[in-house]
Every structure is written in C-alpha cells, then in structure tokens.
Amino acid sequence: MEDERQINWLSLFIKIIIIFIFAIILIWLVSKIINSSKPTETFKNNINNMEEVAVSYFKEIDLPQEKGKSTKITLEEMIEKKLIVSINENKKSTCDVKKSYSKITRNKKDYKVETTLVCGKEKDTITRKFSFKDCKNCNTKTETKDNTKDNTNKNTNKDTTSTNTSTNTAKTTYYEYVKQTTTYSKWAKGNKAGDNIENKYEYYSTATEEYYTLGAVSKSSASASYTIKLDKVPNKDYYFTIVKKVEFLSNNEKEFLSSNNASISKGTKINKLPDSIKNYSLTEDNFTYKLSPYYRKGSFYIDVTLNDINTTISSYNNVYFVPLKVTVKFMSPKITEEKPSGDYDTITYYRYVEKNKETKWSTETSLEGYTKTGNTKTE
Questions:
Q1: S-S: 215 plus which of 41, 95, 322, 324, CB 3.0-4.6 Å?
Q2: DSSP assignment string, 301-320
Q3: pLDDT (tens digit, 9 = 90+) per residue, 187-245?
Q4: Which band of pLDDT confidence, cut at 50, 70 and 90, is reported for residue 33?
C-alpha cells in the first residue's frame, strides 16, 4: 500500500518539462503571428509614396463632379505613365500592380483619396482628404452647390435667391515649411577659394640646414659618383628630406675647407688638401649633376652623380674638387591639424559645399524634417 501511494517524481518532472517547452513554443508562435501582421517600414514608405504620386496626378486631371462618383489609377498605370518607378525592388515581396491602386471619390464637401497597396502577404489601405481647391476642373459653383441646396431646404424664408447668394465658402489655412540640406564633395588637395568652397589645413614641422661639401673626381673621368653623409642634422625624427638649393664655389672657400657637418662616405677620397682649392675646382659649367637625398638606418645621405665632365683646369694629385653648398630641407612625417611650434609647412584641402532650400505649404501643424517659418496663407 505504501508503494502505491508514493509519488512518481520522475514522471512528474518530465510532464512539467513538456508543458514548459510547449508554453515557450506557443508564445513564440503567437509573437511571430503578431509581428507578421504588422506592415514593414519599406511597405509603409511605398504606400505613402504611392499616395503622394496619386494626389499629384489627380491635381492634373478632370475629376468627377457628381457626388459618389470615382476615378481610379492602378499601380501598373502609374509605372506605365512613369509617375513612379517600380517598387518591386525587394525580391522577397512582389507587389501586385493590378490590385494596387489609388481611387478618388467625390464627397459632399471635398474628395476622398483611397490608396491600396498589395505586396505579397502585406496589404493595407490609407485615405486622405482632397480639397476642392486642388481640383483642376472644379469652380466656385461646383464647390458650393451642395451647401447651397442644404441651406435652401433648411430656410423657410421664401427669399431663396438671397440664401443662395449669401453662402460662404470656408477658407483653408496653409503653413509655410522649409527644409535646408547641405551636401559636400570629397576633400581634395589644393588651394581654392569661393562662396561655395570650404577649406581645411594640416601641418608638419620642417627644418633646413646648409652643408659645405667637398667631393673629388678622377682627372680622367667623364662621369663620377660619390655619397655625402650628413653628420649633423637639426632633428633625426624629420627623416623626409629634399635638396632645396645648390650653390658653387665663390668667395666662400674657407667654409668648404673647414666644414665638419658632412663627410664623403663613398667615392674618391681626398688624402690631402692644398691651401687653396679654387684653381682645382669644377664649376657649374664643367658638368651636369643629380642629387638624391635619402634616409637609411638612422643616417642621412645624398648620392651625387656627375656627368659630362669637361674642363681645362689643372688637377691636384690627378683629381678635381667638386665644392657644392647644399641646402637640405628636413620634414617631419607627423601631420597634425594644429600648427606646430617652429618652422612648418601647410597642406591645404578644399571641398565644394552646396546648400539647398526646399519650401512646402501644408495644412498640417507640423511636418517631419521641416521647420515652420511662421508664414501663413489662406485660400
């Protein structure tokens, strides 16, 4: 008897688990059904766009004048008339261009625009009012016709002519809205100015140093090359270099003989110097040259290439001297938007700025994305 009364806990636990799993699946299915019934954001945008296109179209055609009469345009006709591009861009949901339409119906005091869009499992209908003032073929008599009849029937006075002529047409207030947008082109290097141009600037530090270098070439050579090592530099972090200026021997012979901020690391060595190098030095008319500065493994160099060497001057121990005063510009690789202290160069950029202003009149008290100007008009 005691065994029969004992609770089968394992069986009870399994049943609870099954019920719990079933409840979770049921909740998930219900949420899926609820969410699937809501129109997607793309669908909302499409039906709103379709309505706007239809309203613009109805403003340009003759509308029915008899109460209760309608005219309709399908989505297929809108596409054929190129009023709207195809909205079947989402391959998952193809819109039915025949069952999707906009219809305008004449009411007593205005028109009603009804827009229906069918896209796969999504379907919705929206409506809006359409004023007589937007009707192309409506006139004052048409607008006030129904109101006049009602006023005449309700008026027991026999003077019906006075009643008809005193009917007032209700005026609609419109509010002015503006939307300002700005578009920018891509930034480009250069310096341009104008009302529609925006500039920005970047900076990098620079330094310059003068080097009195004295190379040597063999008397019998028509071409030669050697390498100058820049032993002293203003900043070792400024490892981008260019040759800014080159000068030749003039009245600065002492500087070439006493300079100690550069040396010849590769090429013809000078073992001994005369008291004066002027009579043994090539000038700019005696050769062509190319200077190539570079940075390598923490040191700075300039490769010198000489061609078309042609001279009648005397040599010193079978060599000619090549005195070159080289001004080198050192540039930092770090580019910043703030001006650095000391010397610096500027990189200038520009881009085109286009400002657009769109104005819209509406009866709505607010329009998303637009600013109310405070101007109004009544019609």
A1: 322
A2: EEEEEEES----SPPBTTEE
A3: 999 988 888 899 999 999 999 999 999 999 998 889 999 999 999 999 989 989 999 99
A4: low
Cα–Cα distance for residue pair 343/331, rounded to 1 Å: 10
First to last CA, the chain: 95
Gap between the Cα atoms of 193 and 200, Å rounded: 11
Exposed / middle / buried, residue 13 (Cβ in 10 Å: 0-12, 13-18, 19+): exposed
Strand order across the beta sheet in which 70-74 lies: 70-74, 101-106, 111-119, 122-130
Distance CA 299, CA 314 (A): 35
H or E segment at 358? Answer: strand 344-362
Cβ proximity of 171 and 346 under 8 Å:
no
β-pair partners for 181: 356
pLDDT attached to residue 38:
66
- pLDDT mean over 108-137: 93
If DSSP codes are grouped into helix, strand and coil, which group holds residue 29?
Answer: helix
Confidence band of 125 (pLDDT split at 50, 70, 90): very high
Q: What is the mean pLDDT of the chain?
A: 85
Residue from 183, 144, 220 nearest 352 by CA: 183
Backbone torsions φ then ψ of 94, nearest 5 degrees: -100, 130
- Tell me the percentage of the chain whose pLDDT exceeds 70: 86
- Phi then psi for residue 285, to 5 deg, are -85, -5
Query: Closest by alpha carbon to 103, among 134, 64, 139?
Result: 64
**379's tokens:** 């019609």
Q: What is the distance between the alpha carbons of residues 325 and 252, in angstroms, rounded to a whole number?
A: 10
User: What's the helix, strand, coil split of the chain in %, to 5?
Assistant: 25, 40, 35
Distance CA 281, CA 264 (A): 16
- Render 77-96 in DSSP notation, one character per residue: HHHHTTSS---TT-TT--B-
Lowest mean pLDDT: which of 57-71, 143-157, 205-219, 317-331? 143-157
Residue 14 burial class via C-beta count within 10 angstroms: exposed 0-12, middle 13-18, buried 19 and up? exposed
Cβ within 8 Å of residue 133, ≥6 positions away: 172, 379
According to DSSP, the residues that pair with 263 across neighbouring strands are 229
Give CA–CA dist 108/65, Å, rounded.
10
